[in-house]
Amino acid sequence: MRITAASSVLLLLCLAIPHAVAQDQLPGSPDNGVQQGSDHIEHDPRTMSGMQFDQTGMVMNANATELPRDCDEIAASHEFTVTVGRRWAEQFPGTVFGMSEHEFRVEPCSLVTVTLVNEDEVRHQWMLHGLPRYLYPQGMFHLEAAGGETRSGTFIVPSDNQTYLVHCDMTQHMEKGMKAQLVVGSGSGDLWSIPGISRDFRDSRQVTMLDLFLVTSMAVMSFLVVVFLGRSQPGA
Amino acid sequence: MNSRTTGLLVAGLQLVIASVITVLLVPDHWYSDAIRIRMARWLGTPAYQQPVDTQAGFTRDGSAPLQASAEAVQSAPAAELCPPDPGNSRQALQIEGVPVRESLACRADNPHAVAAFVRGTNNVSRETLLAAGLTPDAVTKGADLDGDGDPDVIHLRLEVVELNGGSPDTDEPVTSFEVAPGVTPGLWAFAPKSFGMATVNFESNQAKDLLRAPSPTIRVEQGDRIQITLENTHYLGHTIHFHGVDHAFLDAAGEGNDGVPVTSELPLEPGNARTYELQPRQPGTMFYHCHVQVQVHVMMGLQGMFVVEENRPDNWLQTLNIGGGHVRAPSVTSLETYDEEYDLHFSDLDTGLNNRIQLSNNVDEIERQVNRAYNITASTSDYYLLNGRAFPLTFQESLVIVEPNQLVKLRVLNGGSVGLAFHTHGHKTTATHYDGVALQPAARVTRDVFWLASAQRADLELDTTNDGLHAFGSGVWLLHDHQERGVTNNGLGPGGNLGAVVYREFLGDDGWPQTSGENLAQYFQADYYRRQTTGEQRGTSLSTGLFLRLLVLGVAIGALAASLMSLFRLLSGRQATPGNR
């Protein structure tokens, strides 16, 4: 029992640390510019009870009952099934890992149930960031399914119009295709670099000498043409 | 409204329109990150775009083709893997009373030449010589000095050939010898004295099988009285230095016999012949090479293995071994212990040197190019060869073909300019000799990587007993230099000195190993090693949309500048239209 608890704590630490670093670096992410403090989570009873964890995967911070402070009641219920696996990446050239949905739209104060179906033979995650910390430790809701497994979890979103980042946090999985967004109400604008939704922030294409040469030469030409036309029409 | 006001209005309108067009057309990625984030908040995050830079043809890592092109490669003719063998030269044959062993890689060495090298070209029929392509004095075998039933007076005649050389008539390298598909670096090699054309036939530019890299392995018996006549058929001076092979510094006539211009004798001029004399007292795997401007001549390919076998009765040796390395007529000594024997000659070359001989047809200029202009200390090798070829051609010739529970002798020579980390997959071989000297039993190390410095030799025992130490069982097990550059062709893998230990049950009827990995046909496409892909190159292409956008942007900026100038002139009161002047 003690070993299980210790390993859970270790796991939570491992999950928390990269996020403290990574989240603020995402351009346009809802938490942009907000520094995360270090949370004392070692003996948080809710963390322990809110987590299901075995070899088929993990559900962290599931919450189907406690309302956010700014919600009077559950406004709506939504169920999403997200299938993840390599075949879903084929429609987005340049990516390798894929998910069947890249955008989830719900009303404020909705009860959201997500079922993560993993078609690959390796782990994948459906991780949501930016939820209120008083209800969700580290501000996140996290599903993880081992290869070939399916896991479900439920959470309740607050009342703000907000766009939340959804992703798989295994190294490079988000970057190579597993990035999505949860839009609550009217949202707060699309996140960048979501396959099928928004453009990559860091365009792989650089400004080349050819570009500059093209623009400059055309500019010189048109400048001369316009000046020449102006001179040849004395009335203008 | 006077003309000045009209002019101002026109110029102002032009300014506004040009500015708007300019702002709209500046590509998003030209702005700074901070501005892009702010713009996205005001105007919305830009919508998803399919990347235009996805490569087709070969995959991102280049190892295997994408699915679509994989199908295209699959449909490539399988004959490319193994050329046909109309003469059935791969099977076991009895020629001139010489049992020539079967040699099952898809290109086997010419069995008639093997028989002639065993009997001596002076002792075989005219038909055999014609089939071998050798002159009657190429390898003559004479008296049996010790009366043990085999000839001990041996006289070889070696010529110097140039492969993939220059021509005043064509840009194509002449007397072509591919080291890899489409790769024809200039090469020099010693070759046995042959007759007739240098190419396989009148129409072809392809060198005949006796003319190739590496220079042949020479095999003689301990105590033999050997004469090696170098007939310099090349346009530059050459010598032969017998590295590690017992020989006197001066020959019987008092002439230089060491082959070293600095200390022994002048290079042999083109068109001249010189005879070296040897009577080696000790056996072992040695080395021979030209010693003229060694940084050029050795690297051009004038290097070969020299094997001195122990003296045994009735020990008729295959005096020259040309081709894939399999000894089709092994010595008595070898058969006492081993089931098969292979000569594995590793080398490397720098096309920055080798291709210089193709630049000009003027000998003075070629000599200046290779001996003066080329600087080996400022260069690196780009092709790594096993028996004169790089992968995938090594898989046609230089396979070590074995069966379980065999002992196979591998003679390994590193003739290259860099070290060789000789590695066998699935096996740990045992060193019995280093540089031709037998190791004491306690010093016989068993390992899976042997380091061979330049010019070093190792005799290795490959034991195919599946005991988890010496061998892990049947399969197609690679054999290669484990310095990773050694398994590339000009830095592109797979290539280089990649060979394989192939068990009979994994060998197809045509001699191609039955592999279960990638489709190897793709590596026979010369385009692969030219780094060519069928799709657009990543990051360097300019899409049509962006091209037009940049054109219009340029026009708008020019118009903007022109309108600014015209406004400035109008406002400063000067007449912008000097046409009235």
Q: What is the average of the pLDDT values of chain B?
A: 90
CATH architecture of the largest domain in chain B: Sandwich
At the first level of CATH, the class of the largest domain in chain A is Mainly Beta
Quaternary structure of the protein: heterodimer
Most extensive chain-chain interface: A-B, 45 and 50 residues
- Could you please say which CATH topology of the largest domain in chain A applies here? Immunoglobulin-like
User: Order of strands side by side in the largest beta sheet of chain A?
Assistant: 1-2-7-6-9-10-4
Shape category of chain A: elongated
Total domains of chain A: 2
Amino- and carboxy-terminal Cα gap of chain A = 91 Å
Tell me the fraction of residues in β-strands of chain A, as a range. 15-25%
Largest β sheet strand count, sense and barrel closure of chain A? 7 strands, mixed
Secondary structure tally: strands of chain A: 10
Overall SS class of chain B = alpha+beta
Number of self-contained structural domains of chain B = 2
Strand content of chain B: 15-25%
Low-confidence stretches of chain B: 54-79, 534-539
Class by SSE composition of chain A: alpha+beta
CATH class group of the largest domain in chain B: Mainly Beta
Q: Are there runs of chain A of 5+ residues with pLDDT below 50, and where?
A: 1-5, 9-49
